[in-house]
Amino acid sequence: MNITDLSVHELVEKLENKELTRKEILNAYIDRINEKEDEVKAFVTILDKEALNKLDDIQEKIDNGEIKNRLAGIPIGIKDNMCTKGIKTTCSSKMLENFVSPYDATVIEKLNEENLINLGKLNMDEFAMGGSTEHSYFKKTRNPWNLERVPGGSSGGSAAAVAAGMVPWALGSDTGGSIRQPASFCGVVGLKPTYGLVSRYGLVAFASSLDQIGPITKDVKDSAILLNIIAGHDKKDTTSVDMPKKDYVKALKNDVKGLKIGVPKEFLAEGTNKEVKEKIEEAIKIYKDLGATVEEISLDVAKYSLATYYIIACAEASSNLGRFDGIRYGYRAKDYKDLNELFKKSRSEGFGDEVKRRIILGTYVLSSGYYDAYYKKAQKVRTLVMNEFDKAFEKYDVILTPTSPTVAFKIGEKTSDPLQMYLSDICTVSVNIAGLPGISIPCGVDSNNMPIGMQLIGNKFQEETILNAAYTFEQKFKFREKYKPEFKNS
Ligand code: GLN
Fold first, then answer.
1. Cβ 81 vs Cβ 127: under 8 Å
2. Which candidate among 118, 178, 306, 458 keeps its CA 20 to 30 Å from the CA of 31?
């Protein structure tokens, strides 16, 4: 048995049957990090020693009956834009290279209540802006399926670490696809919850009306388990929704009979890679065989989603990132004549190119004279996109699309052309614009053994529906039994 190949629920089962100990599990993950991190480069901070100490503490409390959680002692990886008390939170930026948060994000508090162990902070595109993790100030994370390719982004460190077996699961964040697209590129499961289901308190803000934290896992059941932990109302986040807690694991019925699935033709049109399209069509066939009804639909406004997303996301980013002024947080330039030069130099030296590009674009679309033409118009289109999804969900339970139009691309392939990079979000951004839940699950590989992801979108707070649809497909398709990352070098 290879411990680092197991999902979390499989690990817990083996713990309960006394086939494994918590120490064996943690050591296996630490060994795996030592073996693979040089190749994959998924971590910004590795917390192996801290994790071992924490486990000793937890084990003692388990032994004397103080701790009873089933998940106690299981490691987890955290995207480096979630605040962790006493541990660096860098957002993979020079600006926050040495920033240590004085408090834990709400999601981290929730993991602590379960006695999960933080095994490290994971690499990302700087401030979560990007789709390949190449915009990290520290390093470029590699895709475990092929080390010359990107892992996707911006949660590329999280997806790569899970795919490489360096952590059993991880948290990512998703503003326009940053959980789902890397999950798709790395052959793992990524869930972006409904806006408001998971607290954003302590998540370093990129675009506050779009950001959500969610699980990146080996399988759908783990996704449901982790969502059970992190979902819930939080007084510290005014956009978090107060509603009764659900048990997402209970929703996994392995049955989609009667489920109504809509497939928007716009998402399989020109620009979608042929092999991606083929695998999505095979997945549709599997759903039909399982008793779901599948129909082609049209989401016409979706074609404006990408433009709308980049206007809104950049506008909000330009405002959110105003706080990094060289005084309150992070990097401060060494030489400056006066206060204005301190601001200017700290920001010029502390931010990378992609972040600057977005701040400039965002400031532009919010400036008087352009506000109505860009920002206000984008907000109107946002409403149209929401209405279009509302209409679709009157008839369908789930909307099915590819997660990304292509498989993982080569490192360096898109860095010189930001527009090409932005296009890899074409299938994911509308879900954030409308605040809906979306999950990416692997549905095959292409002829180069690179994973292909399928996205299932649900109506607001209908995570149960998409999790069950994903689970039912997974039980039939058995991706993990058929395909494995090869750490290939070409
Ligand atoms: N790739 C998208 C962007 O660059 C999405 C990022 C995200 O979801 N954080 O904005």
1. yes
2. 178
